[in-house]
Amino acid sequence: MALKRTLVGLVLALAVAVIAAAGLGAQAGAAAVPFKLGTFDQGGRTLVGLVLRDTQIVDIARANAAYESANPSAPRLTAPADMKQLIARYDTEWKPRLAAIARTVSSASSAPAYAYAVSAVKILPPVRPSVQLNAGGNYVEHESGIATNQARGRGAPAPAAAAAPAATSAPGIWERKAGDTRDNPYLFQKSPTVIIGANDPIVVPRGRVQIDFECEFATVISKPAHYVPVDKAADYIFGYTAHHDVSDRAGRGDRKMGGSDWLIGKNHDTFGPLGPFIVPKEFIKDPMHTRHTMYLNNVVMQDSNTDRMSHNIYELLSFASNIMTLSAGDVISGGSPAGTNIERADPRWMRAGDVAKCEIEGIGALNNPVVAESTVSTR
User: Fold this and answer.
1) Among 37-46, 134-143, 151-160, 320-329, the least confident range
2) Angle at 157 between CA 318 and CA 146, to 5 degrees
3) Tens digit of each residue's pLDDT (9 = 90 or more) over 2-46
4) Alpha-carbon distance 34 to 30, whole Å?
5) Which of 59, 100, 323, 324 is the most buried (most CB within 10 A)?
6) Dihedral of the CA atoms 43, 45, 49, 54 (nearest 10)?
7) Rounded Cα–Cα distance for residues 252 and 70 (Å)
């Protein structure tokens, strides 16, 4: 009988322990606080920050020092010097620590000394990618809109497209599956030197008047990526941000190399607003069903969804990694949806005095004034 009572007691104790653990797990799950990440200037000092509710910036280095002081048994972490370092060490070190910091600050009765209002800091580009790649012609309606406008006489395309040979694989780069009738992905480079942050001015270069807008959903790479299969690409994604692919549509002035010039078209200074923040991938419910909207002076110019991409973000990452090795902090922008001026019979080019706003659901908005070059000092 005594043995029986002992066994019953052990079972009851085990049950209580299981219930308690479940309760603690549920409590921990309920305490999870979503956050974004960015780079900021605070009084002349650059800091890597954790963003809460789009209103509060937490200095990660100072918050971590406070956390470790209050939790002596916690692992000691070296604060990241920049966003690339944070990205590279996120999964192995910083993901649980940032989650703890987010919970601490969110539950505090008042803001700690290491937290600032967004209005008190300058928002810088969240990351300075070593490689910035952009997809061209990657939205169904965008491509068809360009073709329609060209047929109106704005640079008619070669009429033999229907007679062109069927698309084939690019050996060693893009091996298409049977029945895949899409063209191969198309990526071009955008110089990292043209990247600017939220609220920075987009400068209209002297003598150039056909300046177009393209609001794009961008993917941030988490770790070195080379020859990545499509079905493994998600493992190489850190998070997502917004990118405004500002474009000069006026061409080069002659027909050299067929008139194509992606340096002129895409790489004037300031033609790459990026940000305002990076959202770690765990906080974006469905990256391939995310709305993005372009406004010019509060008028909607583009309104689309990432589900309209011809090649999804995983295919673009795989394609790029079969050409070059990508590194933590590199960016691949998914291309522009419909609504750009090269699709419009009556284009409304961006000009000085405009305000451009590229907004991505769940990420935030890039608000950039448009100014003439003569009003901006030489950088």
Assistant:
1) 151-160
2) 60
3) 444 444 444 344 433 333 333 334 334 445 899 999 999 999 999
4) 11
5) 59
6) 30
7) 61
DSSP track, 127-178: ---S-EEEESS-BHHHHHHHHHHHHTTSSPPPTTGGGSPPP--BTTTB-PPT
Strand partners, 330: none
Question: What H or E segment, with its residue span, contains residue 338?
Answer: none
189, pLDDT greater than 70: yes
Cβ-proximal residues to 285 (8 Å cutoff; 6+ apart), any chain:
362
Closest CA to 269 of 351, 364, 192: 192
The span from the CA of 249 to the CA of 266, in Å, is 9
DSSP letter, residue 102: H
b/e 63-80 (16+ beta carbons within 10 angstroms → b): bbebbeeeeeeeeebebb
- Token output for 145: 């809109």
Q: How confident is the model at residue 366 (pLDDT cuts 50, 70, 90)?
A: very high
Q: Judge contact between 211 and 247, C-beta under 8 A.
A: yes
Measured from the Cβ of residue 289, the count of other Cβ atoms closer than 10 Å reads: 11
Question: Do residues 331 and 219 touch, judged by C-beta distance below 8 A?
Answer: yes
